[in-house]
Amino acid sequence: MTIIRRIFTAMFAASLIGIAAAQEGKLKIATVDMQELFKQYYRTNEAQKQINVERARIQKDNNERLARIRELENSLGNLRKQLDDPAINDSRKQQLFKDWQMQQQEGIALDRERREFLQRRNQALNEKMVQRMKGILEEIRKLVEEQAKTDDYDYVFDKSGLSTSQVPFLLYTKDATDITAGLLKDLNKDAPAESLPAEGEPAPELPEAPVAPAPGVPADGAE
To answer: pTM, whole model, 2 decimals?
Structure first.
């Protein structure tokens, strides 16, 4: 279950109790698509772009480390061929074998360092991304609350919320007003043009925790 669903599941459950307790009077109810607000908010798009830059930087550093390891692998291959050459005398083979051992140990150490580097950097980026997205979501939640108070709504339901069985919580509401479009307009009223999601561009998703590592970087740091 995503962070957005966990937050608003509790809100939804509390709202149901309140409705059941209401004995008289007509409730004023609104709905909002929190997932849509989150995806289309320009600050979400900005955060995603920054995270992608950091992911690319991690991948670049990883590739540089891999290049050095590849050089050692090629050198080890050449040394192995020389060791297998029957024309080379024993004294020379002993020296070649020492070189082979040293380079093999260097390659193992470099690959271990590379894996540890990826684990540290990906973990730090994952934590940063989750905190950033939670902050954005809280900002949206506060705007929804302010709008509800301004328009005197008794309840505002997140129509994008899903139960643990992936069934929408909100299956039907009578005379409910969808306030998503107005809220999105308010969220993006001061957005720079370059910060808005481009048409056809995949909208960012609120990540699970932990977040998957950067594209092309294995979860365990392996190649």
So the answer is: 0.66
How far is the CA of 52 from the CAs of 55, 66, 117, in angstroms?
5, 21, 18
Please count the residues of the chain. Answer: 223
Report pLDDT digits (tens) over 142-186.
999 999 999 999 999 898 877 677 777 777 777 788 999 999 999
For residue 29, give every residue at least 6 positions away whose Cβ sits within 8 Å of its Cβ, in sequence order, or none: 153, 154, 155, 156, 157, 173, 175, 176, 177
CA separation for the pair 173, 88 (Å, rounded): 86
How many other CB atoms are there within 10 angstroms of residue 203's CB atom?
13
CA distance 178 to 183: 10
Are residues 181 and 31 in contact, defined by beta-carbon separation less than 8 angstroms? Answer: no
Say how far residue 162 (Cα) sits from the centre of its chain: 20
For 10-24, the pLDDT digits (tens) are 455 444 444 444 445
Farthest-apart Cα atoms in the chain, separation: 101
How far are the Cα atoms of 37, 42, 43, 188 from residue 185, in angstroms, in the given order? 10, 11, 13, 5
